[in-house]
Structure formats: C-alpha cells, structure tokens
Design goal:
The chain is of the alpha+beta class. 31% of the residues lie in helices and 18% in strands.
Length: 798
C-alpha cells in the first residue's frame, strides 16, 4: 500500500500497473473493442470481415478477415505496447491514411481479456495459432490450418477490471446496440468490403448486420437500410456560402477560390428530404466521416439538425456525409478512440455545410391544402363596387368614424390584457365578409352590440337602444374641475388619466343594448354617432396617491402582538414566474417528498382554480386542473394497453438487422403499445419481421414511424439484463411510449381532469393532494403547466 503521508518519496509507477491503467483508458466499451479489431482488418486490405459474438459479447468476441495476414517476423511484437508499422515519428501523423497508428489496441485488449490470434500470410499454405499473456508477450505458437487472413478472439472482456466488468454485464444490451450502431458506420464507408455481424445466444445464432460490399456510398446505404429508405435521400453538394452566411461565421468574403476543386473541403453524402414525413422521429441515423474515418463532429451535427428544423420542425434528418480534406489539415490524435477530430478552417466547413443544406432544401417543393376556398371565389374587387352600394357607404362611414378620434369608453389596455379589459356590454362579434362585397341579410346576420345615445335615436327609427362612445379632447384651461363621485358616472364611462387632465364623457343611460342585424342599420347608427352632442356634461377626475409600506405594516403588527423580532430560514427562494420555472421545480424536488403531500392541510380554494395548502409554516398554491391531469396521465401511461387493429396484409418494415434483433428481444414492449408482428426466423436478416397489427384509438392511428421511435428508446435506454421480460412491468410501459401515444394520453387526461372553474369540497381538494403523493415527478402536467408553487412562509411574515 502506498504511503498517504505528504512527505512520501516520488518514484516511478510499476510497469505492470502503468500497463493496466493505460489499457483501461484505451478500450472503454464493447463498441471500442470491436472497432479496434475491425479497423485492423480493414487496414489489412480485407474484402470480407466477420464479427461473431457469444451472449452479446460477454462470453467472447471474434473478428475474422481475409486480409494480408501477419508475417511470422511480427509475431513477437504484435501485441507489445506502442509497436506499430503505420508510423515511425510524430510528423508521420500528418500523412497517416490507416485507421490505426498508435499500436495500443491489441496491447490493451491483452490486459483486459484473454486474447488469441490465428493467422496465415498470403502466399503461405500453413497458418499459425498464437497466444499472448496480459502484458502482450507471445507465450505459445503452434501451426494451424486456415485460409489466408487473420482471426482475433477475445474471451471474458473486462474480466480484469471488476467494477467495469460488473457495469458491462448490467448494461450489456445497451453496449451491444452501441456496438452495432458503430459497426454500421464502417459498413457504410467501406467500399467493396463485405461486413457481417452475428450473435449466438441460447444455442441460436442470429445475423445482426450484413452487407455485400457496395462499390460506393449509395450502394452501401441501400444494402444497410433498404431501398425504401433511399427514396427519401437527397445528395449533398458543396455550395459557396452566401454573404449572410459568411457574415454569420465572421469569414472573409473571398475565403473560397473560384474553382470548386480548389476549395478546402469536398462533400460526398446524402441527407433526407425536409418534406413532412420524410425524416425520422429521432436522430438515430446520422453518420459522419472525415477522410473516410467515422467521427462525431458535434458542431456539424448540431448545425445540420438546426438547419433541418427550419424546414421540418417535427423530425430529424437521416445523414451520411463524408467530408474530404488534406490530411495535413486534420488532427486525428485527439482522443483514445479517435472519434473526436480537430479541423483547420472549421468555420469555413460549417459555412459550406449550412449553405449546401439551404440550397438543397430551398428546391424542395412545399404544398398546402387550403380550406374554404369558396371565400376567395366570392370576393369582389373594390373597384367593382358601386358608389351608392351599402358596402361603399359603410366604408365611408367607418373611415370618417376612425378619423374623428372616437373610441369605445373602456379602459385602455395592452394587447395581452385585452381579454381582461373588455366589458360585457361592449362585446361585438366579427363582421363576416366585411371588406370587398356586400352581405345579404338573408345569407348572414351579423350581430354588433352598441349602446345608442338617447337624443339621437329619433333620426334612425329602425334602430332603438343606446350607444356609448367617448371623444378624447382636452378642454380649455378655464374649465372648472370637479371631483366625480362614484355614483355620478357608471363604471364603463371612467377612464384612467394623469393628474390635471380632463375628459369629456357623453352622458349615457342604462337602456337595454340593441342588436344591430343589418349593414343599413349599422350605417345609420354610425352617422348619428358622428354628430357631436349638443350639450355634453363635463366631469373631471383626480388621482390620489396613498402611501403604503409593507415593512412598516409588519413592524406595527409585531408591536401589537408583542412578538419577538425573529428571522426565519428560507427554504424556498424561487419566485412564481416563467423565468424561474426550472429553479422552482428543482427547489420543490429537493424540499418536498412524496409523503409531504399527505401531510398538507387544505386551507381553501382560490378563484375556483387553485388550492391553497399548508405544510408546517409554508403555504403552497396548487393548480387543481394541472395536478389532476398529471395524475390521470401517469395512470394511463402505466396501465393502458392499446388495442391492435389487424392489417389486411402484413407489412414489411425494412428494419436494419440490429433493430430487427432488438425488436424481437422486446416484443412485449411493442405489444403493450398495440403493435403485433409476424416473425419468420427462416427468412434472411432484415426480412424476418412483418407488421400485422397497429394500434388505433379513436382518431389516433400509429405506424412504422412510431416503431422506429420505440426502437430508438430501447437503444438509448434498454431493459436491464436481470429484468423479467416475460411480463412488462408498469414502469416499463410508462418508460417506453411513442410521443404520439403520450400526446393522446395527455389529451385524454386533460379532458378527464378537474377543470378551472369547478367548485371543490374540502374532501375533493384533499384527494387531489394525496394523488400527487403517488407520482415520482408531480411538478408539471404533460403539457408543461406547473402543478404547484410555493407562496409564502407564514413565520417570515409574522
């Protein structure tokens, strides 16, 4: 055991310890282990690469190829640390063309598993079987009969690292899915190379991935994902960035040469169309390469998705893009797995990618289906209206009415407060077909509510009632100011004004509001209103400011109650508002447990929409509708099994071999969501699963896109290895729901929930609080509306 004292002697770490530490940093996952072996096979010039796994890689991994094989002179140095034939000095990194170059992979795999090699060099008739120890030293060498090529086998991966081995077995399915996804990238980029991956479990071998070695990127895409997926793809071509894009990335306007072949980057690849339904529900099919090397360029990935969402906000694109540039402009020695790269002139690359996508998607036609097109057909040109028509006279009256400065006597308000400020007596319904042609009273009657002045009703005998309008004009300074009494003017005639301002108000009556049903009646009324009143009464209103100080009030309250001035620790600091929503939610999660909801005391109901509850000295406001909606939603998520609708003919799904295997391993998850399949294990891979039933509920009909979304969920968060797959638990059913199913449940939960405006008894309010104690995350309804917020601490006030 090393000394823990601060004065310990500094000395070198033991070579064996260094080897084990560094090896664990090079090979982190199952995907990296398989990647390193496949890259060695591709570097050897193989035309066929076979990956064979047992029990998803937990028992053994074997990668076999028909490449050039290994020369007997390299047997001793094959698995030694930093022994390689790819480079000799650091400067060689600028021109390296192979996948591997550091000489770390086989040495690290020796330290993490039991490694064996069988190989036969091309031109030889006898092969060799080699065994290495954990340090990469050759311990056994015997002759072995085999075809030219190399086979590397790994047994009990990560067995020398107990913690990592335990986590590897726990997340075995997830690791396996990531491995197949990574292997798919090599299937796409490797030309004229056949790659096959199989897995043996329970005595049964299934093909996970298989390609026949296409001659180009297009052929490989069709072989991996199918011809149907290819029909939605568009070719990406390098395009000169526009002035706006150049300015966005702070580039020089002449950053690119005139000739395309002189540009620093060239593109080869495809992206899915932005037309609705042509993309994918998740970003699970995006592959990027730099000079044929699979990589994860995070900035390019983000940019591609952002541009795609400008044209299609609801989906993600399928992307296969190989970017070629000079080797000297690329640093591939950044991370141990070589997935992160550094590029010279990265801004130019981003600008070119954005310009290429914008140019590509601008050519995609967009069509929309219009409804009520008869309205356009019935529209008449204003020039065709006769001067004496009713619509022409109405236009003239309304123009004069607007120019005169008259406004309805309701308090002024901002657009956001319009609904709150509107008065019931001033409500008016929209005039249908108001602009370009007249409306026959027989076709449509438009109702507009206006109170009409009494002294003007005689000039228009066809209309009876009252109209209230206010003319905002400043009176002369010599007018006498009077303070209005509350009972002198009704509420609808009062307007807020600054001090020393005057207002002229037409005296009104409380006569019944008359409904105007024809344009002629409305025209007559407007003409009468535009005539000023003979002798309007003048009122004035002053604003009185009353000083108020909350702190003074609290101190006065304390002095009256003779309470000590004490401070209370604040548990809740978030304010109620959209800007503090995330902070408030995190605060509630820390301070409130599920059992606290049962301890809350109902104080009462506020505004027929909120429950005021008390927990110790804290007051909380609970949205009764959002709280009940969240509970209903969780119940539907956990317990609902969607009923399937049988299809007349089973439908092929065109799944990849990896997704096909994943679907077969999780059939209960799909069946709980209403999908049913016919599985023919004798068929070739990618053709074994047929869709025979889809879930349908009311107007909701699910399909293959929802299956893809479920598969992506299972890839990202698969069921744990020890979970019983014979029966899907309620938690698993809630976890694995397509977004459209969640939207359906959210809609049903909303309609079933207690509504705002419902009066609740104390028992009903207590029941709503107890329901929240059954939820893991009760802070938001499925539509994002908060369920609860902290109001105030009573002790802090007193």
């Amino acid at each position: 055991m090393a000394s823990l004292s601060s004065g310990g002697i500094i000395k070198p770490i033991d070579h064996t310890t260094v080897h084990r530490i560094c090896s664990g940093q090079v090979v982190l996952t199952l995907a990296v282990a398989v990647k390193e072996l496949v890259e060695n096979s591709l570097d050897s010039g193989a035309s066929t690469v076979e990956v064979r796994l047992k029990e998803y890689g937990s028992d053994s991994i074997e990668v076999s190829d028909d490449g050039s094989g290994i020369s007997p002179s390299n047997f001793e140095n094959l698995c030694l640390k930093h022994y390689t034939s790819k480079i000799e000095e650091f400067e060689d990194l600028l021109s390296v063309q192979t996948f591997g170059f550091r000489g770390e992979a086989l040495s690290s795999l020796c330290a993490l598993s039991t490694l064996g090699v069988t190989t036969c060099e091309k031109g030889n008739t006898i092969g060799w079987k080699l065994e290495y120890d954990s340090h990469g030293k050759l311990v056994k060498q015997v002759q072995y009969s085999r075809q030219p090529g190399t086979t590397v086998s790994l047994v009990n991966l990560f067995s020398t690292l107990p913690v990592r081995h335990k986590e590897f077995l726990k997340n075995l399915r997830r690791e396996f899915v990531k491995m197949t996804n990574l292997l798919t990238a090599y299937c796409l980029i490797s030309k004229n190379t056949r790659i096959t991956c199989t897995n043996s479990t329970g005595g049964r071998t299934s093909t996970i991935l298989s390609t026949r070695g296409g001659a180009n990127l297009k052929d490989n895409f069709i072989l991996v994902f199918g011809l149907k997926s290819w029909q939605n793809m568009l070719e990406i071509k390098a395009v000169r960035p526009s002035e706006e894009i150049v300015a966005e990335f702070n580039l020089n306007a002449n950053v690119l040469q005139n000739e395309l072949h002189d540009w620093p980057f060239q593109f080869e690849g495809f992206v899915s169309s932005c037309a609705h339904g042509q993309g994918r529900s998740c970003a699970d099919r995006q592959y990027y390469f730099m000079n044929g090397r699979p990589c994860d360029p995070s900035k390019i990935q983000k940019l591609v998705n952002e541009v795609y969402h400008l044209y299609n906000r609801n989906q993600y694109p399928s992307v296969v893009l190989n970017i070629t540039t000079q080797s000297s402009e690329l640093d591939i020695n950044v991370t141990p797995d070589k997935r992160q790269l550094m590029v010279v002139n990265e801004k130019i690359l981003l600008a070119m990618v954005k310009a290429s996508l914008n140019d590509l998607y601008s050519e995609v036609p967009c069509t929309f289906t219009l409804q009520n097109t008869s309205l356009f057909n019935r529209s008449l040109s204003p020039s065709l209206e006769s001067a004496g028509s009713s619509s022409h006279r109405l236009r003239s009256s309304l123009a004069a009415f607007a120019a005169s400065g008259w406004k309805p006597s309701s308090p002024s308000c901002s657009p956001g407060e319009k609904r709150k400020c509107s008065s019931p007596t001033l409500k008016q319904k929209r005039l249908d077909e108001f602009t370009s042609h007249s409306i026959s009273p027989l076709l449509k009657k438009t109702k507009v509510d206006f109170p009409i002045p009494e002294d003007k009703t005689e000039s228009c005998p066809a209309v009876e009632g009252t109209l209230i309008f206010t003319n905002f004009k400043q009176l002369t300074k010599g007018n006498t100011k009077e303070i209005m009494e509350p009972n002198e003017v009704n509420d609808e005639s009062i307007l807020e004004l600054e001090k020393n301002e005057d207002i002229q108000i037409i005296e009104t009556t409380s006569a019944e509001v008359k409904v105007i049903e024809t344009l002629e009646e409305l025209e007559c009324v407007l003409e009468d209103v535009l005539t000023p009143s003979a002798d309007p009464k003048v009122f004035s209103r002053a604003k009185i400011t009353v000083p108020f100080d909350l702190n003074s009030l609290i101190e006065k309250k304390r002095s009256l109650l003779d309470l000590p001035n004490k401070t209370t620790d604040k548990r809740f600091l978030a304010r109620i508002g959209p800007d503090d929503a995330a902070f408030a939610e995190a605060e509630l999660s820390r301070q409130i447990s599920q059992s606290d909801f049962e301890k809350m005391e109902v104080i009462g109901q506020f505004n027929l929409g909120f429950i005021i509850a008390k927990l110790n000295s804290d007051l909380f406001i609970i949205d009764q509708h959002a709280a009940d909606e969240k509970y209903n939603f969780e119940i539907l998520q956990r317990a609902t099994r969607l009923q399937p609708q049988k299809l007349v003919c089973p439908k092929p799904l065109n799944l990849t071999a990896a997704n096909e295997s994943l679907l077969q391993d999780n059939l209960d998850i799909f069946q709980s969501n209403g999908f049913e399949f016919v599985i023919n294990r004798d068929e070739d891979s990618t053709k074994r699963v047929l869709l025979c039933a889809v879930p349908m509920s009311g107007n909701w009909l699910l399909g293959p896109s929802d299956i893809d979304e479920l598969l992506f969920m299972l890839q990202d968060s698969p069921l744990i290895q020890d979970e019983d797959r014979s029966k899907v638990s309620h938690a698993s059913m809630a976890r694995f729901r397509p977004s459209r199913v969640r939207a359906m449940f959210a809609s049903r939960a909303c309609r079933k929930a207690v509504m705002v405006g419902d009066s609740l008894t104390s028992i009903q309010m207590t029941k709503l609080l107890h329901q929240l104690s059954e939820l893991q995350h009760p802070w938001n309804c499925p539509h994002g509306r908060p369920t609860m917020r902290h109001l105030i601490n009573i002790d802090a006030v007193l």
